[in-house]
Amino acid sequence: MSNSTAKELYDKWHGELGEQEEDNSNSPWHQMTKQHLGDIQGRKVLEIGCGRGGFSKYLLDCGADLVAADFSDTAVAITKRLLPNMSNFEAVVADIQKLPFSDSAFDIVVSLETLEHVPDPDKGLAELVRVTKPGGQLIISTPNYFGLLGLYRTYREVTGRGFSEVGQPINHPLKLIDRVRKLKQLKCKINVVDGVGHYLYIPRTYGIRMTWLDQPHFLMKWIAAHSLTVATKI
């Protein structure tokens, strides 16, 4: 799929969701990010894949000097309407695979549930590292297909039923363990590896949470459905 085609699809997808579709900051990946975010007062932060601005508002409330970016013109327009006239805020249209920012431009780069939805996730990951300052942090989350979520996806595909994450047009089966390895190859130090959510997936449901699989956390986080890494650029 070309970048232009993907862009059209994501503009259409966000337009169909509309501003009435709540974009909050209470999902499992947002909760993990809040836990590991630290003090961002006055820090220059990039949120790439801002969607309709729900988590952007949280970052601004925490005092970030924020650039919120998304591949979708529609999403950026909605974010601008949600967060108008703030001196420490800018919303721009940007492709994570070719970010329009200089090297080492940001203290903190946040990418939540975005890399799995772009044509070339590896190129996107390399761009996130490029625009982060040496000593700066990258906070990245994606679904983790090394576990029950991956088994369910395989079942759907083998039985010809197809698989989609809430109707999004691109859904790469990324894995937490691969992201850790690739960040190390990009000369980043891994500070935090986290993951939550083990579900019994049943067709036409969002899955039944099985909390008894959460422990021991040091082991089960690697196969949880929602994954997070925090890394420092060396």
Q: What class would the helix/strand composition place it in? A: alpha/beta
**Range of helix content:** 25-40%
CATH class: Alpha Beta
Strand order of the largest sheet: 3-2-1-4-5-9-6
What is the chain-wise order of helices and strands?
HHEHEHEEHEHHEEEHE
Count all strands and give the number.
9
Radius of gyration: 17 Å
- At the fold tier of CATH, the topology name is Rossmann fold
Structure write-up:
By secondary structure, this protein is an alpha/beta fold. The protein has helices at residues 3-17, 28-37, 54-61, 73-82, 121-130, 148-158, 176-185, 217-220; strands spanning 44-48, 65-70, 89-93, 106-112, 132-143, 188-196, 199-200, 208-209, 226-233. The chain has one domain: Rossmann fold. The protein has 8 helices and 9 strands. The strands form 2 sheets. The protein has a 7-stranded mixed sheet, sandwiched between helices. Strands 7-8 form a two-stranded antiparallel sheet. It starts with a helix and ends with a strand.
